[in-house]
Amino acid sequence: MRSVHFLKLFFLSLLILSSCTKKEDVILVGEYGSLTGDDATFGISTNKGIKMAFDEINSKGGIKGKKIKLITEDDQGKNEETAKVVTRLITQDKVMALLGEVASSRSIIAAPIAQKNGIPMISPSSTAPEVTEKGDHIFRVCFLDPFQGYVMAKFATENLKAKKAAVLRKNGDTYSEGLANVFAAEFKKFGGEVVADLSYQPKDMDFKTQLTEFKAKKPDVIFIPGYYTDVGMIAQQVKQLEIKVTLLGGDGWDSPKLHEVGKEAINGHYFSNHYTTESTSPIVVEFIKNFKQRYNNEVPDGLAALGYDAAKILADAMTRTKDLTSKNIRDELAKTKDFVGVTGNITINDQRNAVKSAVVVQVENEKRKYVTTVAP
Questions:
Q1: pTM of the model
Q2: Going by C-beta distance under 8 Å and a sequence separation of 6 or more, which residues neighbour residue 85?
Q3: How high does pLDDT run on average in the chain?
């Protein structure tokens, strides 16, 4: 019995020693996003881009001899879940850095938790200005809503020659409200008139009351800063009401589900986005080729590209650190300059925001036809 007991202790010791060694050999990075719920395509696309980036880095030896281990938490697209999963990643999993979220409202919830614990956080695609205002550990690799709103107001005025615009915003949503405010203000600066500015409630499916009011005022464009499901349904109802108008929006339109919901009613309309699949840049061509090979010929959307860039920028900062600590990673992230990403050259400014161009694309069934680029 003594020898059996001894062997059990021996193997238990080996198991503990092995576990410790494995933990020391990896760099733990946390990701939180909407892998299920109403915005699930955003989280899934972002996760695919992040995984591909880290696998590429690990296949080349990792960072400082360590492999990156990604721990992903699903916040279900719910604000109330976000604080729980982010706290768990930091306090239980002990991640060294965080990637997330797509939705600005949920990044705003997570940012103070990361800041309080000294963990650097990079949002791939939260465009509301408030996100990085939560503290000096919070970064983003996408452009901001003030720029995105300017881009679409400029495009409406100069490219479409629009004189009158209507705005349809989602009540209480940080992304939608912020982008709507900027577009309306910028459109007026360009000499246009906002003839109506109405809202809808979360979970609404019938928008005909607002659209009927718009029809009476005959706008040239309707700006809809919503997510793909709402936009698809609105486009269908615009067609049913026989309103002759061009629809405009932001990067929240970018999902394969947009056409699935909106069908032919969404064709011909425009939104601002982070990159174009028509780019001939070598890094974009290589990214799309590898993504399609890895994910069953799927064409990566803007969220996947931003997830990829966020992961690569984080890894780049880790590579530059003398010692791998959260504090050192934060400091190196702040020094990021002229990083060549899939979504453009990225420099982090003093407010920890990315300074970069935007593209305008036109919906053409499942494709996104490149129209123009607007620089800051």
A1: 0.86
A2: 32, 73, 74, 75
A3: 93
